[in-house]
């Protein structure tokens, strides 16, 4: 039996979270990891209890949906809310972070950003990551790594 790698496992988790996104413009998921353990997760969505873009349409100003809190930001804020340190942690995101999220990740002490898809990679974000010694690495999700049929079927009993 092939074991799933840590990179694929965490990246798969981010893709799973992305399915919870409520902003129709982009479904994004983010998983913050420290010492190979998931400490937080987030997806693109409105504030807790707020209206969803999926129900009301996006609230677009200057080509951006202002209702949405980005996945990376949601994951960081979950850590802030529950007092979980992010210094030295890593993040797995489905898309390359926007400039605002990039700055927040650097400031929160995130040391590595793994992303599955390039997305309007802002040159200034790339520059800031380099200057802050934050590693960015593309980790594409291999869809073949997830095969729930391996575990979904009951074990065959042998007599
Ligand atoms: Zn939206
Ligand atoms: Zn962002």
Explained architecture:
- It holds the Pfam family dCMP_cyt_deam_1.
- This is ComE operon protein 2.
- Belongs to the cytidine and deoxycytidylate deaminase family.
- Keywords: Hydrolase, Metal-binding, Zinc.
- It comes from Neobacillus piezotolerans.
- The chain has 159 residues and is of the alpha/beta class.
- It has one domain (18-147): Cytidine Deaminase, domain 2, CATH 3.40.140.
- 32% of the residues lie in helices and 21% in strands.
- The chain has helices at 6-18, 53-56, 71-82, 99-107, 123-131, 149-152, and strands at 29-34, 37-43, 60-61, 64-65, 90-95, 112-117, 135-138.
- The strands form two sheets. It has a five-stranded mixed sheet with strand order 2-1-5-6-7, sandwiched between helices. The protein has a two-stranded antiparallel ribbon with strand order 3-4.
- Strand 3 (60-61) and strand 4 form a beta hairpin.
- Helix 4 packs parallel to helix 5 (123-131).
- The radius of gyration is 17 Å and the shape is globular.
- The model has no long low-confidence stretch (mean pLDDT 93).
- One zinc ion (ZN) is lined by residues 70, 72, 97-98, 100-101.
């Amino acid at each position: 039996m092939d074991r799933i790698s840590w990179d694929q496992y965490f990246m798969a988790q981010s893709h799973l979270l992305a399915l919870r996104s409520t902003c129709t413009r982009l479904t994004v998921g983010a998983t913050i990891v420290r010492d190979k353990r998931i400490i937080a997760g987030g997806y693109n969505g409105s504030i807790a209890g707020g209206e969803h873009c999926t129900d009301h349409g996006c609230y677009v100003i200057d080509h951006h949906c202002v209702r949405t809190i980005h996945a990376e930001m949601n994951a960081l804020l979950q850590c802030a809310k529950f007092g979980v340190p992010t210094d030295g942690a890593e993040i797995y995101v489905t898309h390359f972070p926007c400039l605002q999220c990039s700055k927040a990740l650097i400031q929160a002490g995130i040391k590595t950003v793994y992303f599955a898809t390039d997305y309007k990679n802002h040159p200034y974000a790339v520059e800031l990551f380099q200057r802050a010694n934050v590693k960015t690495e593309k980790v594409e999700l291999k869809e073949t790594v997830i095969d729930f049929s391996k575990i979904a079927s009951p074990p065959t009993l042998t007599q």
